[in-house]
Write a structure and sequence with these properties.
This protein is of the alpha/beta class and 452 residues long. The chain is built from 11 helices and 19 strands. The two termini are 34 Å apart.
């Protein structure tokens, strides 16, 4: 694996720097590659320890045993909805989740940055069939539940799959913006590249101004965070297609801020809450994807971009969750890296034992021939009653046009809903980075054709 060590001061000086992915793989069974994420001058590096081709064991630790049975609150119906569309359920009170022993807190480690990767090569399987595009609407129901004292309140959906009523697609608690871009009742969104592009460019390339999701990144420990402006400065871009606006997926990364600094009333937690308030005041519904890929970024392989133990993460999650729980339209989106299986995530403590989990997701960039079920079924079915939204995905090492097209088919095929009935949609990583082209529509790419 090719790696470059970058210091934080050097990063802060690169005000016009752009994404810089690298080739490479990980040790052990299987290899990986993933794009780093930049927005402005932030530089987020990572690599994924993934399954080997053919479905071997996970790297980065032994596979955990099965957790105890997890109970989640039953949903009841209630009037709600993004933009006033449709009805949606809400989460009842209650607690749930496997409660592993709290790990011993680890010392905060010096942060360094590596130009590594996160993609994984997967088993060779035939892609799903091509699906004609269709549009529907999905909206958000009532706000997230409060913070539980004994474990996370896992809110979410029934496991009966998406339904369409009067043009409104719904899945239990969560439905997406009216008439947002979808295929087979599966919502589609973008992670726009800011190397001369925008969400409007992505929308124009496919001829649809109404994606279901728009995703942006921010790092709390870097100067670019600027009390949350790094996130809120994207409001105009997210609104560029007009109403109904896409769900704003705010990937708030504690890069440079150790987990144990996320305490009640702290400046960093206050800045997150203020940013969420500003987003919702602008008419945006928000999925707060706090500390995404926590199971990878807090590792030596990632250069300790995040620092602290799983227990520290859980505490930070609980504090942030509590800080935003009374802001209408903000939902906590737990989104680990494919580095770990579902049972490993629970047994190792990376599934939060405090706060609210409103939405789950998992980041992965599979190789050509991968199936949706092989990548996601184990994960999504471990939490069948929580809405499943993929916050970030693309094709391994950028992928050929045919690879990207095939993975889009998998992401939008009816088989995906059969594998994961709680699946609501995904966001595509529409980036060009160091000559590695992950794009499906902009820059003359055509992989989206026949799917979106």
């Amino acid at each position: 694996m090719k790696a470059y060590t970058l210091c934080l001061l050097a990063l802060a000086a690169l005000s016009s720097a752009r994404p810089k992915p690298s080739g490479g793989g990980g040790g052990g069974p299987g290899q990986g590659f993933h794009p780093s994420k930049w927005q402005g001058q932030e530089y987020n590096k990572k690599a994924e320890h993934t399954r080997s081709v053919g479905g071997g064991e996970y790297r980065g630790g032994g596979r955990g045993g099965n957790p105890t049975t997890t109970a989640y609150p039953t949903l009841s119906s209630g009037v709600g909805g993004y933009g006033g569309a449709g009805t949606a359920g809400y989460a009842g009170a209650g607690t749930g989740g496997y409660q592993p022993p709290a790990p011993t807190s680890s010392a905060v480690k010096e942060t360094s940055y590596q130009d590594t990767s996160e993609y994984s090569e997967k088993s060779d399987q035939s892609p799903g069939e091509s699906n004609p595009g269709n549009s529907g609407s999905q909206s958000l129901g009532l706000g997230p539940s409060g913070v539980a004292s004994s474990g996370p309140v896992s809110t979410g959906t029934s496991s009966t799959g998406n339904t369409t009523t009067g043009g409104t697609i719904s899945n239990g608690k969560i439905t997406l913006p009216a008439n947002c871009q979808s295929v087979n009742n599966i919502g589609f969104g973008w992670l726009p590249d800011y190397n001369g592009a925008s969400l409007a460019d992505d929308e124009a390339a496919v001829g649809n101004k109404n994606p279901c999701f728009a995703g942006y990144y921010g790092q709390t420990g870097l100067s670019e965070w600027n009390d949350g402006a790094q996130i809120t400065d994207n409001i105009a871009d997210a609104q560029s297609g007009g109403k109904p606006y896409p769900i704003f997926i705010a990937s708030v990364m504690p890069q440079g801020t150790p987990f144990d600094q996320f305490t009640k009333g702290s400046a960093v937690v206050t800045s997150i809450a203020n940013a969420m308030t500003k987003l919702t005041a602008a008419g945006l519904t928000v999925f707060l994807r706090f500390a995404h890929e926590m199971n990878y970024y807090d590792s030596a392989a990632a250069g300790y971009i995040y620092t602290g133990s799983p227990a520290d993460f859980s505490n930070a999650w609980g504090v942030v969750s509590a800080a935003v729980k009374d802001i209408p339209g903000v939902y906590m989106h737990w989104s680990p890296n494919y580095d770990s299986s579902a049972t490993d995530l629970v047994s190792s403590g990376w599934y939060p034992t405090q706060g609210t989990v409103d939405v789950i997701g998992m980041d992965i960039y599979p190789s050509g021939g991968s199936s949706f079920a092989s990548e996601y079924q184990n994960f999504c079915q471990h939490w069948p009653d929580v809405p499943f939204v993929i916050g970030e995905t693309g094709s391994d090492k950028g992928g050929s046009t045919s690879d990207k097209h095939a993975w889009l088919q998998q992401l939008t095929g009816t088989a995906a809903l059969q594998a994961c009935p709680n699946y609501l949609g995904f966001s595509w990583f529409e980036y060009l980075k160091d000559g590695v082209d992950f794009r499906i529509a902009t820059g003359g790419n055509s992989a989206y054709q026949g799917v979106l």
